Amino acid sequence: MTVRPLQTSRLGNYEAGPFKEGAILFSILIASALFFGFLFNRETALSYSIGYNLYGAQRVLAGEVPYRDFHTLYPPATVYLNAAIFGVFGISLYNALLGVFVFKVITTAALYASGLMIMPRAWATVAACSSLLWLRPNGPFKAVPMHYGAFFLALALFLVLKYVKGGGKSYLLFAGVSLGALALFKHNIGAYALAGTLLAVLPSSRKGAMVLAGGFLLPVLPVVFFIASQDALREMSRTLIFGPGDFLLSRLAGWPSPAGFLVFAVLLACAGLLIYRRRSSARIVSSGSIILVLACCSFVIFSRQSVIDSLVFCAPVAVILWGAVRTFAEFKRGMSEWRVSLIVLVTAASAFLEAFPRFAREQAVASMPFVTLLLLYLIYRSAPLPLGRIARTALVSLLPLTLFLVGARLFLNTYFDGRLGFKSDTELNAERGRGVYFPKDRAEEIDGVVSYIRQHVEEGGYFFAHAYAGSSYLFLADRNNPSGAQFWGGVGVTDSERVDTLRAIDEKRIDLVITTDRDLRAEAYKPMREYIEKIFRADRRFGEVIMLRRTGVQQ
Q1: Engineering a disulfide at 40: which of 81, 101, 145, 153 sits with its beta carbon 3.0 to 4.6 angstroms away?
Q2: Distance between CA atoms of 63 and 139, rounded to whole angstroms?
Q3: Helix, strand, coil % (nearest 5) of the chain?
Q4: Is the dihedral angle over the CA atoms 27, 29, 34, 35 positive or is it negative?
Q5: Which candidate, 545, 391, 535, 395, places its Cα nearest to that of 471?
Q6: Rounded to an integer, what distance in angstroms lies between the CA atom of residue 258 and that of residue 223?
């Protein structure tokens, strides 16, 4: 197969005017910091990640080791990073959100820099700016692994593109380090990205592939050795290899209906065919193109939420399939650009695979910045349409504008009420929640639960978080968990852990259990269900949260 030289002039203009590009990159940083700065401390829901990751970070600060002393489903970087943040700035929800804020800002800058490697400045700017809107609906700045891992994924993309455009193998080394760091937050995404990048690098340079793999191991091996030194390697291996499968089985949801996306795609194809058949008339083509854009905008704005959810899941699949077809075609034609296409494709696909096969909407939303970058790249690389300027501009902007409006609609629904006021307008009174805002009724509920816990459980004392929601209050109320299971009803709770937890509740004379009606009904461990029914009685209710108090001595 004959490979043509890489046409770098068609792949971006990063090298043109480094001072100017630096100024624009700095402007992107400032703009994203200002934008996110208005939002990061306005939480829309009490995320379970508070209990899972932030309370885990608190346990790390107390000298405990993940996997050995408490269960976590993810690689260890999230809890250790937040432990470091807490060690420097203090333990609070605000500081955790601030850490995610910083990562979101630098991720936006990394996306812009990556886009600039493959597209003109204006296109890269559009890719970066559109990413601002794609915030997870259920906790836009919560401490979940890919809020940190996305930066390392974007950074790896930039570094590999630098190598492909003629940079030295040092770029591959640092790209490998970045992918290794990603794997320490989300190991499956790191593995996908590494495998795809190796596929792009290996045909042209075996040594380069070895450098990339070596870089990947640089941050991973020290962590493995540290965990091994803490007698936690076996449990970590079991968790990371088998835990995700157990988690998926417990949280698996059905594939969302593609009906909304299919209706949109069919209407779009029919309209495009009509415009093509009238291509001999410039006036009709221009008018039809503008009408088509307006129709697509109206479709997104006025459709039901189920249709929007269908677009959120199905649009990335369509874009990734388009990228795969184009990459394969470039490879078969001997075009060296196939490597660039594959790298961008792998990055977008890796980000989106976090949502598969759980089909969690928030994870699909989180992948959209990378999917949008791929979409813009594919449009930019496509042959220019033989149309007038107005029609060409309208049709080129059609798909990016549609995705932008989908993101804008989700963004507005997440943060604002009908009068464009913040939904989250009430600051928490709880000490660890100060500076963080929730919707008024939710904030009052959280403060009520935290106040109740602190009144009935002494400082340094324990309560049992039987419900998922209860785990977050371990962190907010600054009290301890008698169990190594971060989520009692979740995956990873072994039979021995169940026995140990029940024994600890009894021996420590735990006086408070936090649960919900749903969790009580779902309790599958018969000894725990019988113990709670016999020893505890409902004392207070805050919304769905039930406070159970010990009423007597077990007979």
Answers
A1: 101
A2: 28
A3: 65, 5, 25
A4: positive
A5: 545
A6: 42
| Per-residue pLDDT tens digits of the chain, which is 555 residues long | 344 444 444 555 555 567 777 888 899 999 999 999 999 999 988 888 888 899 999 999 999 999 998 888 889 999 999 999 999 999 999 999 999 999 999 999 999 999 999 999 999 999 999 999 999 888 889 999 999 999 999 999 999 999 998 888 999 999 999 999 999 999 999 999 999 999 999 888 889 999 999 999 999 999 999 999 999 999 899 888 876 544 454 455 556 778 888 888 888 888 878 877 777 777 888 888 898 899 999 999 998 988 898 899 999 999 999 999 999 999 888 777 899 999 999 999 999 998 876 667 888 899 999 999 999 999 999 877 777 788 788 888 899 999 999 999 999 999 998 788 899 999 999 999 999 999 999 999 999 999 999 999 999 999 999 988 888 999 999 999 998 887 787 666 778 888 989 999 999 999 999 999 998 988 888 999 999 999 999 999 999 999 999 985 443
Query: Of 372, 388, 415, which marks where a domain is finished?
Result: 415
Q: Which residues pair with 549 in a beta bridge?
A: 512, 537
**Helix or strand or coil: residue 156?**
helix
Same domain, 48 and 17: yes
A 10 A CB-CB count for 256 gives: 18
427 SS3 class = strand
In 3D space, the residue among 11, 334, 3, 347 whose CA is nearest the CA of residue 166 turns out to be: 11
Domain boundaries, position 95? 13-244+256-415
* Alpha-carbon dihedral angle through residues 441, 442, 444, 446, given to the nearest 10 degrees: 160
* Rounded Cα gap, residues 547 and 540, in angstroms: 5
| 444 lies in the same domain as 338 | no
Q: Are residues 208 and 237 in the same domain?
A: yes
Q: Are residues 402 and 444 in the same domain?
A: no
pTM exceeds cut of 0.70: yes
Query: 120, 9, 80: which is closest to 222 by C-alpha?
Result: 80
d(C-alpha 152, C-alpha 350), whole Å = 12
Both 400 and 452 in one domain: the answer is no
Q: d(Cα 92, Cα 77) in Å, to the nearest integer?
A: 18
